[in-house]
Amino acid sequence: MTEGDERIAANRVLWDRWTAVHERSEYYDLEAFRAGEERLTAFEVAEVGDVAGKRLVHLMCHMGLDTLSWARRGAKVTGLDLSERSIEVARGLAAELGIDAEFVSADVQAAPRVLDGTFDVVYTSRGILGWIQDLAAWAGVIEELLAPGGTFYMHEIHPFYLVFDLAAPELRVTNPYFPRAEPARVRQSYAGAGEDDPGEPGYAWVHSIGELVTAVAEAGMQIDFLHEFRHAEGFMAPSQQREFGDMWLPEDLEGEVPVSFSLRARKPA
Fold this sequence. Notes:
alpha/beta, single chain, two-stranded antiparallel sheet
């Protein structure tokens, strides 16, 4: 087993552990989702466009809440995730709610081998960028999965915002922005899992906006836009949060720090 394979295996074990907590957490609130709560932001829906009747694959889908949200909007959805436990939860939700969806457990690099055909939309949601070791290879997978004229869309935490210590009451740079070959070791989850977790950590990598845009462009996709936002969903530390509708803003430098972004690109027809 190569070092890369070992890290993938460690991340699979980590996400299986986290899923056991996430499916019971207030952060994900599966009961609200079961009751019909929308999990896609209004701007995501607008930027992706009408998905009715389209084949959509959600890469690194975790428990499939966003995947199933697209299905509720008429897409023919497939979700793929490294964690078998996450996929079990996603399949259970789909069956319970009567939503037609396919879920596959595999590393994202294996997606072209384990998924059937190509897709009109390849979608990724918040929190996946740091779990990708090789952005160029990942972008190549997306290009291979897209049908000619198909759309790639991602909505993600801004890597610049992640240079700050999110547990501190002030904005203080503690993490790198520019890519590093060696990953960070991660144990504690954004949703509260891992504070007292004796299990082995997983691995996460640093990627810049420039690295991401270059990887997508060099894979042969045409970039429609990169939008940077002053807001994000409620993933930030309580010391830096102020409620603003259903979004969150950094209190110290409101309006001055990019907190999230969206990117859309297309495969030439």
